[in-house]
Amino acid sequence: MKCDYIMIHYGELSTKGENKKVFISRLTRNIRHAIKSFPNSVVTSDRDHAYVSIGNEDPSALITRLQDVSGIYKMSLVYKSSKDIEEIKENALDLLKEEEGKTFKVEAKRGDKHYPLDSYGISCALGDYLLDHTDKKVDVHNPDIRISVDIRDDFAYLSSHSYLGEGGYPLGMNGRVMMLLSGGIDSPVASYMLLRRGVRIDCLHFASPPYTSSAVIDKLKDILKVLNVYQEDIKLNIVPFTKLQEAIYKYVPEPYCITVMRRMMMRIAEGVAKNDHCLGIATGESIGQVASQTLDSMVTINAVTNFPIIRPLATSDKLTIIGVAKKIGTYDISVRPFEDCCTIFAPKKPKTKPKISEAEEYEAKFDYASLVQECIDNVTPIMMVGGEEKIFPKTDNSDK
Amino acid sequence: MIYFDNAATTPALKCALDAFVKTNVETFGNSESNHAVGRAASKALEGAREDILEMLGLSSTHSLVFTSGATESNNLALKGAAIKYAKRGKKIITTVAEHPSVLRPLEELKDLFGFDVSYLPITKEGIIDPNELKPKMDNEVVLVSVMAVNNEIGSYNKIEEIAKIVRLFPKAIFHVDATQAIGKMNLPYKNIDLLSFSAHKFGGVKGTGALIYKKSLNFIPVNAGGEQEKGFRAGTVNVPGMVAMDVALKYSLSKMKESEAKEKEIYSFIYSHLITEKEQIIMNSLPLGESQTPFVMNFSLIKKKASVVVEALSNKGIYVSSVSACSSKEERSSYVIEALTGDEERAENSIRLSFSPSSSMEEAKEFLSAFDTILSEVNDR
Fold first, then answer.
1. Phi and psi dihedrals of A17, rounded to 5?
2. Which domain holds residue B291?
3. What is the CATH number of the domain that holds A127?
4. A242 touches B: beta carbon within 8 Å
5. For residue B330, what is the nearest residue in chain A, using CA coordinates?
6. Among partner residues A210, A246, A346, which is closest to B311 by beta-carbon distance?
7. Rounded CA separation A50/A45 (Å)
8. What is the pLDDT of residues A8-49, one digit of tens each?
9. What pLDDT shows up at residue B56?
């Protein structure tokens, strides 16, 4: 039985009051964008659901694509029927016959309050009919198959199948942050968590040639190609970090190198974030994972900026993070062996409880501010759009 | 661009590429096909085979199997011969400094077929001492495998002397991995039973190579499934590639003397400069001599990290080789340098320069100046 629509159940809309309209219009726009390669599908929405007409497109390909769109809780394949109860019965029977399972339940809803039968009446009428015409039994508590019927003003909508979506909020609803992307396992997962939360990302990478290999940039591009599924255009800012890193290595005692380096990174991130109109900084840090990610370290590192630093993975354990990385397809890219700037200067005994006062004392030994500014001013942007690198237009922040 | 990584691979010679394209267009047939197009391909292939054997002076004593390169040739030689002649004995002797395409197949022979593999150590010169081989030889030895020129340090084994020792034991087969030597220097070819090489190390196209074997020898095919190459190597033969290999070898041999003289000049020039930087560099290869070829030079960085210096050179358009573009998570080092020096850190921070007939003194000078600048700029490890 060929379905007519995919009915989309909104994500965390129940928690939203006044932003409902924004949520729906943003999601509708994102869905339209996501399925633009399905020219025969049309997207409409009302306050309860969005609908994607299937036309002659492949419904399973559409569902797969829509499963990457954040803000969708669930999708149902829907068959449109006339409101005549006899016709509804026939269509429900056809639907039921296609399903595998021994037990079923009919769930009826009546949007059209003038309909002659109420919800209970519809359920009973359909249930009786289906019981008489199949060998399946009714189980109202734990059915194998759920046949749902929604009587609306125009038509009756029947469905038997639903698919879970990404959940979260529509992308772009919750502002934009500057994501620090190293190329490791964690930061792509943190990016994904932000994206499904509706937060757009710009990315920032600290490159220290020749201590880091230029192959890392290719690796980052490959990671962004994966993330382009969730955000079609992602800007990657490459910071030329070598000079500053060498200075840190020269002036700061080894146990404090990482702490000071992270503090410098936050200063630079704040500067670039401001230029790019981001509302915060995000990292892939997880509490306690390494020396620079202890709470003490975070306090000392955070002290250099008033910007919110969002750590989506703060409480995730490594196995969970790896699991998500594998699921979204960034794991195999992340484990390619290239040096990033954290591993090359790694001190033998990094400080796990660094103090702000001491960090400040070491930083006072050199003119870091001008080096930080130099980093901010010389960022190279790379634009990844739909899995392809786009030549970035000349930098011009004046019109933003 | 300065390309000093010719031990990894070389650009294809123009004459080889021309022959490759021409054969692909004009003699594209399957050499096994029984019609005029196939017979033309077969004729080209057999011509290349005869030509290569003749150039090496082996027409009357040896035959040749075309392969995809030295890795396949080594696998075919070692597994094919050891298994074929397993009844003669189960002992195999090789060296610690062989290429992985020799060491791995031998490990398989040990683990899966119960062969007893022993490894000869290398001297400070990066070669084996033939006197170490003598006491290990007996009538149980079925195979002796020794590389000609080492791919990491450029040292040259005393192949002729080793061959004489092996010859005293008629059951033992002598295999030489000549990948880094052929086309560059003369080898005592007649004394070798099995000889492997790749064409892309002397200007041929990638994916081509050969195993030369004494006519009296027999071995089990590693690739089974067809009667090509007398049943020793099933699969449609890459006729254009093999014709190109013939052309590249002919060209390389014709220029061998002048190429070697030029590479010797470059080697000595760079060597004499690097050896003065005692605080930064320690040489792993020796000065030119009987056991040191001018094709490959190896040294270690005392203070800097090799991968960082290689990356810095790469950013300047100068391409040399370190063991691996490794990460601290997956640290790898050169087992050859470690066997040579017994020093792990030295093995992790070794750099290899490898030259070709197209390398020049100007490039050598430019390399040294860039290299010195990088050493002064880059932080210590």
1. -105, -85
2. 255-377
3. 3.30.2130.30
4. no
5. A337
6. A210
7. 4
8. 998 776 655 677 888 899 999 999 999 999 999 999 998 888
9. 97
